[in-house]
Amino acid sequence: MIAIIGASLISSVILLSILLICGLPLGELTMGGQYKIFPKKLRIVLIFQFIIQTFFLVIILQAGGLIPLWFSYKTTQIVCIVMAVYLSLNSVINFFSKSKKEKYIMTPLSLLSAICFWITAL
Length: 122
Description:
The longest helix is centred in the middle third of the chain and has 24 residues, at about 40-65. Helix 2 (about 40-65) packs across helix 3. This protein is about 75% helix and about 0% strand. It is an all-alpha fold.
Protein backbone atom coordinates (compact mmCIF):
# COMPACT_ATOMS: atom_id res chain seq x y z
CA MET A 1 0.00 0.00 0.00
CA ILE A 2 2.81 2.44 0.88
CA ALA A 3 4.52 1.72 -2.44
CA ILE A 4 1.30 2.63 -4.26
CA ILE A 5 1.08 5.93 -2.38
CA GLY A 6 4.76 6.63 -3.14
CA ALA A 7 4.25 5.75 -6.80
CA SER A 8 1.26 8.08 -6.95
CA LEU A 9 3.28 10.92 -5.44
CA ILE A 10 6.18 10.35 -7.83
CA SER A 11 3.69 10.18 -10.70
CA SER A 12 2.41 13.64 -9.77
CA VAL A 13 5.99 14.96 -9.94
CA ILE A 14 6.42 13.24 -13.31
CA LEU A 15 3.24 14.94 -14.51
CA LEU A 16 4.62 18.29 -13.33
CA SER A 17 7.83 17.62 -15.28
CA ILE A 18 5.84 16.85 -18.42
CA LEU A 19 3.84 20.06 -18.04
CA LEU A 20 7.03 22.09 -17.51
CA ILE A 21 8.62 20.46 -20.58
CA CYS A 22 5.54 21.49 -22.58
CA GLY A 23 6.05 25.10 -21.49
CA LEU A 24 3.22 25.57 -19.01
CA PRO A 25 3.77 28.37 -16.46
CA LEU A 26 4.36 26.15 -13.43
CA GLY A 27 7.99 27.02 -12.81
CA GLU A 28 7.14 28.60 -9.45
CA LEU A 29 6.89 25.08 -8.08
CA THR A 30 10.56 24.32 -8.77
CA MET A 31 14.03 25.85 -8.56
CA GLY A 32 12.99 28.49 -6.03
CA GLY A 33 10.42 29.86 -8.45
CA GLN A 34 13.21 31.32 -10.56
CA TYR A 35 11.33 30.78 -13.83
CA LYS A 36 7.60 30.98 -14.36
CA ILE A 37 8.06 29.31 -17.76
CA PHE A 38 11.19 27.21 -18.16
CA PRO A 39 13.61 28.30 -20.90
CA LYS A 40 13.98 25.81 -23.74
CA LYS A 41 17.52 24.83 -22.71
CA LEU A 42 16.32 23.90 -19.23
CA ARG A 43 13.45 21.90 -20.68
CA ILE A 44 16.06 19.56 -22.18
CA VAL A 45 17.38 18.98 -18.64
CA LEU A 46 13.81 18.27 -17.55
CA ILE A 47 13.61 15.49 -20.14
CA PHE A 48 16.52 13.73 -18.43
CA GLN A 49 14.89 14.40 -15.06
CA PHE A 50 11.68 12.84 -16.41
CA ILE A 51 13.58 9.69 -17.40
CA ILE A 52 15.19 9.43 -13.95
CA GLN A 53 11.87 10.02 -12.20
CA THR A 54 10.27 7.28 -14.29
CA PHE A 55 13.10 4.95 -13.29
CA PHE A 56 12.44 5.71 -9.61
CA LEU A 57 8.73 5.08 -10.14
CA VAL A 58 9.63 1.60 -11.41
CA ILE A 59 11.99 1.10 -8.44
CA ILE A 60 9.36 1.83 -5.78
CA LEU A 61 6.85 -0.41 -7.55
CA GLN A 62 9.45 -3.21 -7.69
CA ALA A 63 10.47 -2.74 -4.06
CA GLY A 64 6.82 -2.88 -3.06
CA GLY A 65 6.38 -6.15 -4.96
CA LEU A 66 3.87 -4.64 -7.37
CA ILE A 67 5.78 -5.34 -10.57
CA PRO A 68 8.40 -7.99 -11.41
CA LEU A 69 11.99 -7.19 -10.49
CA TRP A 70 14.25 -5.93 -13.28
CA PHE A 71 17.16 -5.92 -10.86
CA SER A 72 18.00 -8.05 -7.85
CA TYR A 73 16.01 -7.32 -4.71
CA LYS A 74 19.15 -5.99 -2.98
CA THR A 75 19.92 -3.58 -5.84
CA THR A 76 16.31 -2.39 -5.86
CA GLN A 77 16.43 -1.86 -2.11
CA ILE A 78 19.69 0.12 -2.31
CA VAL A 79 18.35 2.36 -5.09
CA CYS A 80 15.17 2.86 -3.06
CA ILE A 81 17.24 3.96 -0.03
CA VAL A 82 19.29 6.34 -2.19
CA MET A 83 16.06 7.89 -3.46
CA ALA A 84 14.73 8.15 0.10
CA VAL A 85 17.87 10.03 1.16
CA TYR A 86 17.63 12.31 -1.88
CA LEU A 87 13.96 13.09 -1.22
CA SER A 88 14.67 13.72 2.46
CA LEU A 89 17.35 16.27 1.56
CA ASN A 90 15.12 17.72 -1.14
CA SER A 91 12.39 18.28 1.47
CA VAL A 92 14.76 20.38 3.57
CA ILE A 93 15.88 22.39 0.54
CA ASN A 94 12.27 22.96 -0.57
CA PHE A 95 11.37 24.14 2.93
CA PHE A 96 13.86 27.00 2.60
CA SER A 97 12.77 27.94 -0.94
CA LYS A 98 12.09 31.58 -1.80
CA SER A 99 9.00 30.43 -3.71
CA LYS A 100 5.96 30.06 -1.47
CA LYS A 101 4.39 27.64 -3.93
CA GLU A 102 7.45 25.40 -3.86
CA LYS A 103 7.65 25.67 -0.09
CA TYR A 104 4.01 24.84 0.62
CA ILE A 105 3.32 22.35 -2.18
CA MET A 106 6.58 20.63 -3.06
CA THR A 107 7.96 20.30 0.49
CA PRO A 108 5.10 18.10 1.75
CA LEU A 109 5.06 16.20 -1.54
CA SER A 110 8.78 15.51 -1.28
CA LEU A 111 8.57 14.62 2.41
CA LEU A 112 5.69 12.20 1.94
CA SER A 113 7.51 10.63 -1.02
CA ALA A 114 10.64 10.24 1.12
CA ILE A 115 8.64 8.53 3.85
CA CYS A 116 7.12 6.13 1.32
CA PHE A 117 10.55 5.28 -0.10
CA TRP A 118 12.00 4.76 3.40
CA ILE A 119 9.18 2.46 4.48
CA THR A 120 9.18 0.52 1.20
CA ALA A 121 12.98 0.11 1.23
CA LEU A 122 13.21 -0.99 4.83
